[in-house]
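re: ur question from yesterday

yeah so i grabbed the chain u mentioned. its 490 aa long if i counted rite. heres the sequnce exactly as i have it in my notes:
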Amino acid sequence: MKQMSFADAEHSENVESLYGTTILHQFTGPSSKNGGCFKRHPLLVFHRLEGAMKDMESKEETRVGNVLAGWNHLSIVGPVHIKNASGARVQVATGEWYDDYIMGWGSCLLGHDSTIIKESITRSLSQGFLQQYETDKHRLLSERFCAVVPCAEKLRLVNSGLEATMYATRIARAVTGKRMILKFEGHFHGLNDSLTWNIDSSPRSGKVLASGELERLSGTVGIPDEYGMLTVPIPWNDTHAVQKAFEQYKGDVAGIILEPVALNIGCIRPDEGFLQELRALTSQHGALLIFDEVLTGFRANLGGAQKDFGVVPDIATYGKAFGCGMPIAGIAGKAEYMDIIAPRGPVQVSGTNTGRYLSVSAALAIIEHLADGAVFRYITALESQLKKGLWDVFDKHGIPCYLDSYGGRIGVHIGAYERPRTMKEIEKLYPVEFAKKLFYMLSNEYRLYGFLMPLSYCPEPVTLSAAHTPRMIEDACERLNSALKRLRFS
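ran it thru and got these C-alpha cells back, copy pasting raw so excuse formatting
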C-alpha cells in the first residue's frame, strides 16, 4: 500500500540513481538505546529533484510528487491521473479505461459509484449534510454496528484508521495504567508515530534480539527513536516471542495490537490457535487485546475477522469498508473499556470532522445493505474464481506462487511454494525485481490498475469489490498469461 520510502535509500548502493536526487545532508541520531536495538534513520534533506522525478514534477507543480494523496503515487509507475471512475473501472487522462484492483485500498467494497451510497448522500443533502451533531442516524448507526460486531458494546467514531489505532492504544494505556504495546512485524496500523515500526516501508525485516523481540525499524524518516521505546515488534505467528515479551516487560504491557489477518504484506493468516493464544495471554497478564479490523472489517461478513475466528478482542478498530469509500472510521469495544473515553471518563477522543452527517448516513445505509450477506457471497465467489485462475496461469508458466485471501483481498506470494508465516519469510522469497517488471507491463500495456502491485519487498493484495464481474476476472487472468509469455521468471 505504500511506495518506496526514504529509508530504502539508506541501503541502496547508489542513492542518487534510486531517487534522482542530490543529498545535501545526512544526519545520524544520538547513540542507540537498549543495547543498540533501535535502528537510526538518516535525515535526508533533498536539494533538488532530478532524473525521473524531474520528468513528473515541473516548477509550477504545487502537489508533492504530482499527488495530493501520497498513496496515489504508485510504486514503479508513479502518479496516474484519473478522469472518471465507475463500478470497478477507472478512466485515465488519455481516455482509456482500466480495470481497478486497488479499489480505494480496500475501501470501495461496493464500487466507485455505488447507488446505495449515492442515494444516502442525496437524501442527506436536504438535511444539513455538513453538520456533525448527534442525530437519530448517529444513534441508529451505533446500534446497528454494536448488534453485528462481537466485541462492540459501545462505539466511538473517528475519521481514519490511523486515528482509530492511535486512540485504541491510548485507551489500552489508560485502562491498564501500563506503557508498552506489542505489535507484529508487517502489520500496518496507520502512520502514527508510535506504531509506524517494522512495516513494509521499513528498510528490511528486523533482526531477532536475544530477548526474542525484533530490533526497532522505523517505517519512515522523521520519528525519533524514543517513540519506538514504547512499542515492541515481534514476529507474526510466534507465540514464544509473545510470551517472552510479556516476561521482558513484566507488569508493563498495556496491550497487543494486530491485524487478525495480515493483509498489508499480501495475505498471511494466523496459525491455527494463534489468536486464541493471544486472547489467553492478554487476559492472563492484564493487557488488552486490540484487533485492527480496518482491512478485515465488513469485507467477509458484518462481524469481521473476530467472528470468523471466534476470538473476541477487548477493542477493535474500523475504517475502509465501514464507509465503503466515505470518510469514516471507528473504535468499538467492551463498555468497561470504552467508558474511559470522555465524557464518561478522562480520555480525550474526538475531532472537528468526526461524525459528519453525510458519512454517518452512508455508513448506516451500507450496514443495512450488507445485512443479508448477498454482497459477501458474491465477492467470495469472485475471490475463488480469481485464485483458481491465477493458480492455473502461474502453474502453466512454472512459477511458484502461494495464494491466500480474505474478504475479496488476495495475497499473491510469487516465489513461495508454501504458505509464508512471517514478513521475514516473505522478504526472503518474494522476487522483487521480477514483480516490478511484471507490474509495469500489466499497468502500462494491459490496462490493469494496481494488479499484482509490489511493495518494497512484499505484495499488495489484489482487491475485489461487488462491482467486479466474472468476465473481468477472466480478462485479468488472460492478460497476465499474455504478459508472462513475454517475461521470463528468475
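noticed a couple things. The domain at 115-194+230-370 is CATH 3.40.640.10 (Aspartate Aminotransferase; domain 2). also The first helix runs from residue 6 to 10.
anyway ttyl
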